[in-house]
Amino acid sequence: MTQVFFYHGASDKIAAACALISGAWTKRKPLLVYAPEKPIADSVDRILWTNAQLSFIPHCRADSPLAAETPILIADRLTEITQSERLMNLSNEIPPGYSRFQSLIEVVGQAEDERLAARERVRQYKEQGCDVRYFDLNDR
Predict the structure, then answer these.
(1) Residue 49 sits in a domain of what CATH number?
(2) Comparing 55 with 84, which gets the higher pLDDT?
(3) Domain range for residue 89?
């Protein structure tokens, strides 16, 4: 069963996601970032290229010719992607086929609509038998 990690209370959801991506890369763990909304995917991509604090993090879009050899992928859909270890969800919906992943990272901002959508996802994950853990980003 998929382990779900909710990082909630982020004052800047994209910055928090990029910090978590950096942590995965530091440990040399592959990660698939599900960002179906183009502005969010573009922001993550831009920050990973330009944020000096994170240094270089090898990443690309999942449909890139370099995807097979790149550890961090940004995808707007999850079909035809073989990675099944770690998934980060930057959508307000449950990612399709999430259960094939060993772990799922959810990043939730402080906006009311994000928090309400996250609560609904928690309920659904628990109903499906997932182990859900929480990390408050307000404390950082």
Answers:
(1) 3.40.50.10110
(2) 84
(3) 3-139
